[in-house]
Amino acid sequence: MADKTEVPQVNTGKVLAFLKLFTKGLTEGYLQVEAIASAMTKDDKPDIRRRTVALANLDDLTTFIEQYKEWNLYFRPNLLRDSQGSGKGGAALKTDIIAGTCFHLDFDPNDPPEGMTLDAKREHLIAERERIKLALANFKVSPSFVIDSGGGYQAFWKQQAPAPIGEVEAINQRLCVFFKTPDSCHSSQHLMRLPYTVNRPGYKKLAKGREVVATKLPVKNDKRYTLDDFAFLPTAEATGAKAKAKGKVETDVSDLPKRFRDLLATDEGLQKRWSGNDEGLKEGDRSARDMSITSRLVRYGFNNAVIARILRACPNSKACQDERNDDYINAMISKARYGRVLSATEPLSTAHRFVAEVLTDDDGVPLLRRWNDDYYLWQDGAYKLRADCDVEKLVWEYLEPAKVHIPGKTPKAAAALAPAQMSALAPAAQAAVNTMLAATAAAVKATAALATTASFKVNPTKVRNVEAALCSAVLLTSDVQNPAWIDGATGYDPAELLIMANGILHIPTRELLDHDPRLFSSMALPFAYDPNAKKPEEWLKFLHSLFTDEGGVLDEEAIDTLQEWFGYCLTTKAQHDKILMIIGPKRGGKSTIVRILRALIGEMNCVGSTLDAMADHFGMESMIGKRLVIFPDSRLSSKADMRKLTANVLTASGGDRQSIPRKHKPDWLGQLLIKLMLISNELPKMLDDSEALNSRLIFLHLRKSFSEAEQDKNLTEKLLLELPAILTWSLDGLVRLNSRGYFIQPTSALELVEEMENLTSPIGAFIRDRCVIDPNAWAYKETLFTAWKGYCLSENRNYEGTTASFGVSLRAAVPKLITKKVGPKGAQRSAYFGIGMATVATRVSDDQKRFFDGHQPPAGAETAKTSEIADLDAFKAKKRAELM
Q1: CA separation for the pair 376, 495 (Å, rounded)
Q2: CA 104 to CA 168: how far, in whole Å?
Q3: Rounded to two decimals, what is the model's pTM?
């Protein structure tokens, strides 16, 4: 920034020297410069002067520069083919540019936040300028010229040879994307600030902290580049960057929305205006032509941002030809929307208009979506589920004050006489006929003035029609996932993004991005991400109190597992296929862990359920759109459908696509992106002979129970204050988990693992206790079933099933089981291959680990008889007697 004691002055000699250096090597074309007076009040009218000279006569600009040195001075980097532009006042349009001779970037500082003092705004501007300066200095391709405009910086990369305008503008746009400046103008006819002049801000920029300063040329050289030098730059489509309409001029209709292209192909009235036909308008009135196009687009339900794009793309519009600013277009749109005159017979157009006027952001992105037969409204950075009645209320409110167009009754125009007929009439008769024809033509033309409007007369039928059309207007197809990029946007893997109160957090890099309604995600955390958050001291202190045993030994393994689980719950990925089960006594800290995890994930993203509900027909409906399902009481009723329960738990925890029944709605089809967490004082009695469920479970065992005196009544409030720090702690756990690739079961809960295995699969417990799995082992079916019945008797199981049900359960537990018939023909017996009864010697070895509590068995036990044993209790009783 310039010293405030200096009075900035224009240096005409240096300005001319710069222009000669900038155009070095070019031989054809005209250079255009502009002088623009600053608007010092809102009532000041824009005043612009232009001068266009041939390259050989650049010195002729001396008088112009001196005459307007008290104004803001600009130049067009690309040359004109003629001595005057075809736009208003001789301004250059894109069609006036010979070719692209340089790539350019207009890098403006971000506006200061609302509420700043003037001094704070100036400090903000200084910081922004340093940021821009550093970004340009570190760019892979060094600019040929950089102009310090006093506000931001303007960079230029001279070309080795002129290139087609479209290719040059494409590079300009990709530069905008790379530097995250989508508002920077990239058109080939764009004006740039002249160096060695004075930047004189208007009243709006002065309010943002700008000052009167001299413009400079900190970088100047003769480096030249080709299109290939910029091949590494990303495109807007590849990054999901928002390309706002401001300053953007489009001439290729293929870049405009398909709905508009279809309309342009079928609507004759729109075709006329697009091609410059002023029939019915004042001839040459381009503003009226723009108004006609705008009114049609409003009626068809296009949003403001899209209408602005279309107007700037129309080659015969004033908005395009004169590069009119946002104020001109916004005023046009506001006038077209005034009175809300709707179509009574086109509900789809009305639905589009409703979204455009009520539920669209400033960039033209719809904020309402219909997905899986539900409405989702974008609020606070994420899409939140909304009931149909909520949207119906908005439609009623929108239609209530609306009007409909009532056309006037058009009189029939008189038919003109043929020339031969006219010539046969007397002169007086010819005059009378001409008078009559003129009168009827005037009556037809006046019909538009007779048109009027009437109340829309909203009623339930009209609302239902608009709502039905609305479902189509905002529909996301069933193949869209949640989360996902929509509307053609792309970016980081949506599963790696976490919506926070202050932006979108990319989990792997911890980069914070701007909120974007083109990221369809229903999960948002209710607090801001703090990259400088300290350790969650109170939280860690609490965990240490839970996982330190009576001997003072800390179970760090259990804390690490909980940390990884917290991180895992923040993602929508289910690659680990795990369910956390916390078992512990009452007042043992389980509920506090759950409360903090719910607060971390967000209450709206969590739901409490029961295992009984998982087996119920509609029990999983409440889990749709959630991220965490907590079972605060894992006990089961005797009426629960165990098979269905197990199947639903396995499907949900594995992230499989499934169909979920819903009351009074079609079944929901999709992938539940949920994590399951079971909390209980005791292990739940679930059944799964295949033991697939056990492989999904990770156990934490809490052993302490805190008395009333030991409990901190304000603990939850203290811990909630540490949520930003707990988030960082959780993300660190996720990094460790993903690096390792799997969860580790804490050794402190291994006994729960074994107990759960025995509870969920009695057949599995039987196999571990009395059988051996070996490809060479075999046993008769009746032998195994007899052993099974003896096992059930010893375990007090009331029902051992049938031979057939036993076979089904056995095969679920031992998938490689083979059934064969053995023995001589006529006396064959069915046998299982791949499993056999354990021998006495093996059984003694296994049993002493489980039963004898470390006592050594008597000598000779290892060489006991190896016959099959059907009743283990008799064997155990015998061994007890020998030890006594």
Answers
A1: 19
A2: 9
A3: 0.56
Task: Give dist(CA 120, CA 641) in Å, integer.
Answer: 66
Contacts of 609 (CB under 8 A, 6+ apart): 619, 622, 623, 629, 630, 631
CATH of domain 537-752: 3.40.50.300
Rounded to an integer, what distance in angstroms lies between the CA atom of residue 194 and that of residue 25? 20
Sheet holding 100-107, edge to edge: 100-107, 153-163, 145-148, 216-220
Q: How far apart are CA 148 and CA 129, in angstroms?
A: 9
Q: Give the closest residue to 679 by CA, choosing from 609, 627, 619, 577.
A: 609
CA 861 to chain centre: 68
Helix (H) or strand (E) holding 760: helix 750-760
Burial class (CB in 10 A: 0-12, 13-18, 19+), 662: middle
Nearest to 779 by CA among 767, 790, 765: 767
Helix axes 762-770, 750-760, angle to 10 degrees: 110
Q: Is the pLDDT of residue 393 over 80?
A: yes
Cα–Cα distances (Å) from 618 to 654, 664, 665, 671, in that order, read 20, 11, 11, 16
Q: In whole angstroms, how far apart are CA 426 and each of 240, 636, 792?
A: 75, 107, 123
**Rounded mean pLDDT of the chain?**
83
Beta bridge partners of 103: 157
Cα(169)–Cα(398) distance, integer angstroms: 41
- Scan for tokens 């994590």, then name that residue: 675
Say what the alpha-carbon torsion angle 510, 514, 517, 522 is, to the nearest 10 degrees.
30
Task: Assign domain 12-230 to a CATH class.
Answer: alpha beta
Contacts of 807 (CB under 8 A, 6+ apart): 781, 819
Among 336, 247, 323, 328, which residue's Cα sits nearest to residue 287?
Answer: 328
DSSP string of 159-193, one letter each residue: EEEEE-HHHHHHHHHHHHHHTT-TTS---TT--EE
Distance separating the N- and C-terminal Cα atoms of the chain: 98
* Whether 377 contacts 359, CB under 8 Å: yes
Tell me the domain boundaries of the chain: 12-230, 537-752, 761-843
Q: In this predicted model, what pLDDT tens digit does every residue of 136-192 receive, in sequence order?
A: 988 999 999 999 998 889 999 999 998 888 889 889 888 988 887 754 467 888 899
Beta bridge partners of 737: none
d(CA 145, CA 221): 7
Q: Other C-beta atoms within 10 Å of 324: how many?
A: 20
DSSP string, 198-232: EE---HHHHHTT---EE-EEEEE----B-GGGGTT
Q: Which amino acid is at 418?
A: A
Rounded to 5°, angle at Cα 576 from 571 and 580 = 85
User: How far is it, in rounded angstroms, from Cα 74 to Cα 150?
Assistant: 13
Helix (H) or strand (E) holding 397: helix 388-399
Architecture of domain 761-843: Orthogonal Bundle (1.10)
Q: How many C-beta atoms surround the C-beta of residue 109 within 10 A?
A: 21
> What is the tens place of the pLDDT at every residue in 330-345?
888 888 888 788 888 8
Cα-Cα-Cα-Cα dihedral sign, residues 831, 834, 837, 840: positive
Q: How far is it, in rounded angstroms, from Cα 829 to Cα 320? A: 91
- Where is average pLDDT lowest: 76-85, 111-120, 704-713? 111-120
Q: Using CA atoms, how far apart are residues 699 and 759, in angstroms rounded to an integer? A: 15
